[in-house]
Design brief:
This protein is of the alpha/beta class. It is built from 15 helices and 13 strands. Helix 5 packs parallel to helix 6.
Length: 379
């Protein structure tokens, strides 16, 4: 079915893992696919390993409220400005070496920098570079992610698309493991509501950043409004520097009553959010796993998405999602007409919604997949 890892119902019954020291290094604990996935796995990781999570930034307490006090104690913040890094890197590396992990997983570029240094100083530790995208976003990302790939004992990726990118671009001699990014099993029943084309509710869930192409999502609402549909768009996510620009774009399109920023959403509220929307819209230029799309599909929300990154491996146009072509204005116009044809026919909508839900019912979780892959590479 693509990247989905089937549930192994005997997995947790047969897992016999000697408690080794596991260090996981990432940037922040904030809203985002990488962070949400890790938090979903912390209870199991804490149970099976001597776990520490090195956080190179801030920790949002709302994101960790579901964890026990022991599990929260695994999260160790090192919240320093980048300008301070020349001074504090020795301190952070000393922390790694004193903990002396058996396995160290580094995700994103600052973590990769520390991982490479620690691996050079302690060659015995098993170093895993976790890659999450099919592009590098700036020169530091490129420099330190590539260094991590060269020095890693294994490479984890969030999708087959990212794995193919790493294999083709760098041809590493170490194994590449694809980790499922489904944080939960599918709900017992499809959550998305039936479509009433007199009240069509869209949502966006992700960081408010340039790569997400939110102006195109707003253009979609303008197009459908001009065609006579009563549509709305709720935008959920953390501001990554684009919220003011997006708000101005909404005002210019005179859509203040149709497009609303709803802040961040996580945990149990996410399921409630899926229940209250018919469509998820994500028109990114590039993606890795596109976790919000996968989660929406698990709940039967119909996704209007660009088929980038891993998305074509777990979604099919007009069967389990609606693919958008944003390559030219004309191509995007045709995609908007395709979307309108689904809104105009509740039976087609229901077919895609049900197909989406059914296609991912057997997908395994991040926690299961991550521990299984660690078992393969541990020394």
């Amino acid at each position: 079915m693509g990247p989905c890892i089937e549930i192994d119902h005997n997995f947790w019954n047969t897992l016999a893992l000697k408690k080794q020291k596991l260090l996981y290094i990432l940037h922040d604990i904030q809203i985002g696919g990488v962070e949400v996935a890790l938090l979903s796995a912390i209870p199991d990781l804490h149970s099976h390993f001597e776990l520490k999570v090195m956080v190179l930034g801030s920790i949002d307490s709302n994101m960790t409220e579901h964890l026990s006090s022991e599990q929260k104690a695994c999260l160790i913040p090192f919240d320093y400005k980048l300008s301070k890094y020349p001074l504090v890197i020795p301190k952070m590396v000393r922390f790694i070496l004193r903990f002396a992990p058996d396995i160290m997983i580094c995700t994103l570029w600052r973590a990769s920098l520390l991982g490479v240094i620690a691996k050079k100083l302690s060659p015995r530790l098993r170093f895993v570079s976790f890659i999450h995208n099919t592009a590098f976003f700036h020169r530091f990302d490129r420099l330190f992610s590539q260094a991590a790939i060269r020095h890693a004992d294994a490479i984890f990726t969030d999708s087959r698309a990212t794995a193919a990118f790493v294999a083709q671009r760098f041809a590493p001699s170490v194994p590449i493991e694809v980790i499922s990014f489904f944080t939960n099993h599918s709900p017992e029943f499809k959550a998305a509501p039936p479509l009433n084309n007199q009240d069509v509710r869209f949502m966006f869930l992700g960081r408010i950043s340039a790569v997400k192409n939110l102006p195109l999502a707003i253009d979609t609402i303008r197009f459908l409004t001009d065609r006579g549909y009563h549509v709305s768009l709720d935008v959920y996510g953390r501001d990554d520097g684009m919220l003011e620009t997006i708000s101005e774009y909404i005002r210019n399109k005179q859509l203040e009553d149709r497009v609303r920023y709803q802040g961040e959403v996580n945990g149990d509220r996410k399921t409630e959010t899926f229940r209250n929307h018919h469509f998820l819209i994500q028109l990114s230029a590039n993606e890795g796993m596109a976790m919000s799309v996968a989660e929406a599909m698990q709940n039967g929300v119909v996704c209007f998405v660009t088929p980038v990154g891993e998305i074509p491996n777990y979604a099919t146009d007009m069967r389990t999602a609606i693919f958008a072509d944003i390559s030219t204005a004309g191509a995007f116009g045709n995609s908007l007409k395709k979307l309108e044809s689904v809104i105009a026919d509740p039976l087609v909508y229901d077919r895609i919604s049900s197909g989406s839900y059914e296609s991912l019912k057997t997908a395994g979780t991040y926690s299961e997949s991550l521990i299984r892959s660690i078992l393969k590479i541990r020394g």
